[in-house]
Known about the structure:
By secondary structure, the protein is α+β, with helices and mostly antiparallel strands. The chain has 4 helices and 3 strands; from the N terminus they run βααββαα. The relative contact order is 0.12.
Amino acid sequence: MNTTSISQLKINPSAVISMAADYPVAVENRNKIQGYVLGKNLYEAMVTFIENYIDKKAFKNADFSKGRKAEDVFRDLGL
Length: 79
């Protein structure tokens, strides 16, 4: 994992964001990680993964034997 200091983040945030395109960049303050910078593509991939996981879990837990209306299922899924 790439790391940078909080001072470098303040000096050149664009460089840190560029470093974070594919992998997170740990931001350290006094040799302790205080946070992470994520690139746009990585953040969007993580959000998509989480949304798909939630959808799969809801589908797996759905009881289709009761024949619920599609509108009710969509509402429960937040769609």
